[in-house]
Write a structure and sequence with these properties.
This protein is of the alpha+beta class. The chain is about 30% helix and about 10% strand. The protein is built from five helices and four strands. A four-stranded mixed β-sheet has the order 1-2-4-3, with helices on one face. Strand 1 (about 95), helix 4 and strand 2 (about 125-130) form a beta-alpha-beta unit. The longest helix is centred in the middle third of the chain and has 17 residues, at about 105-120. The chain is elongated, with a radius of gyration of 32 Å.
């Protein structure tokens, strides 16, 4: 590949450029820019942190709210059945445990299990996602814990599961708590 010669300026362009260079003023040095500017003081004071609750030796600590709650949709099923399900009084008809699976393994397994349960006329499926590993690699970007825990609710809102899922809710503590989901399926038509 050959290089082109740089184009030279025409006489009109040369005169225009000389006018620009005569009227241009050099920039101020960075130090001069900062010395001319007035120093601004913050007017608002930072709010004081909330006081720490008193703690006595031997007292049990309150559990921290670290788990993100599963976004709940409005109740689409029977309110009585929903309350019963939420309290852990309904026993699941089927269960799938996604522990130790990657997203690529878990997504088809979830689809297969829920479609088979729906075809068999089952209504309540317990999906165990796990709470996720608590790890911090010390990097500047925080790492989200529980990849499956956050991905499964999104998968349930996508086709082909969207058509068969009537309601989802976080499982009761007796069935896994925040590491599991109740998936209530629609009736077969």
């Amino acid at each position: 590949m050959s290089r082109r010669k740089p184009r030279s300026l025409s006489p009109e362009e040369k005169t225009l450029w000389s006018k620009v260079t005569q009227t241009a003023e050099p920039h101020k040095t960075p130090q001069a820019l900062f010395t001319d500017a007035p120093i601004l003081t913050p007017t608002k004071q930072t709010p004081k942190p909330a006081p720490i609750a008193p703690f006595k030796i031997g007292q049990k600590a309150r559990p921290a709210q670290t788990a993100m709650p599963v976004p709940t949709a409005p109740v689409a099923m029977d309110k009585r059945a929903f309350t019963k399900m939420k309290r852990g009084k309904m026993s699941p008809d089927a269960k799938i445990d996604l522990h130790g699976m990657t997203q690529e393994e878990a997504h088809p397994a979830l689809i297969n299990t829920l479609l088979n349960a729906h075809a068999a006329g089952k209504r309540l499926v317990l999906v165990v996602t796990g709470k996720g590993k608590k790890r911090d690699d010390g990097g500047p970007i925080p790492v989200r814990t529980g990849i499956l825990k956050h991905a499964v609710p999104q998968w349930l809102k996508q086709a082909p599961l969207k058509q068969i899922v009537l309601q989802t809710n976080q499982a009761n503590q007796s069935h896994g708590g925040s590491g599991a989901l109740y998936v209530y399926l629609r009736r077969q038509r």
